[in-house]
Amino acid sequence: MAIALVLALGSADVARMVLAKGSAQAAADAAALAAAQDLVLPSDATPADRAAEFARANGATLVACDCPPGSTEAIVTVQLGVSLAFLGGTREVVAQARAVTDFPFSP
Asked: What number of helices (H) and strands (E) belong to the chain?
């Protein structure tokens, strides 16, 4: 009985990590797309600022954004904290995404 309980609690932590990885990847995808959009259609914010905004809106923190104005791609890295009930503490899940722009300028 005790072994089953330990396995169940361990499985719950594994499930939390898997869900957190999916959430972190969704946040990275959104941040990369937002930065790429800002590369094509510049706004009052920088592409990195826009990426940080979208990462935050999805519960993550922007760690890095390789998206200089004038480039054609945005590569972002985000992290998301997940609390583990059985193992205790908080672990960081990291995800990365890349978005490429292909905006044809025709006369």
From this structure: 2, 3
